[in-house]
Specification:
Layout (H helix, E strand, L loop, with lengths): L1 H18 L11 E7 L8 E9 L2 E8 L2 E11 L2 E8 L2 E10 L2 E8 L2 E9 L1
Antiparallel strand pairs: 1-2, 1-8, 2-3, 3-4, 4-5, 5-6, 6-7, 7-8
Length: about 120
Amino acid sequence: MKKLINLVSVNFLFIIAFIAPNTTLAADIVGTWAYEVSDTPPEYAEGEITFMKNGDVYSAEITVSGSVTKIDAVKVEGNTASFKVFVEGSDLKIKMTFEGDVMTGKAESYDGVFMMKGKRK
């Protein structure tokens, strides 16, 4: 019986030590973020993005030059968020990485890749 208890204890410690640290928790991205995008026309160079969460589903609203665009399909994995938004006739793929209250990322379109940075408001 003592060997069985020791075996169970060792298995439990193994699970905690090796499996638990590999689980990735979603970053706390909910809220409003002010951002800047490099090398873009002035009307797209800065804006705000507000992330919302309903249950396990993330969504967002981007405000640029007074115009608001809703995004229903935001994918969050660990400390990254990615989504597509339709701008001036084409899809823009956005991927952001969050570290505390700071965000970095990139926006990809047929015009190229544009670097982003921002802070939580």
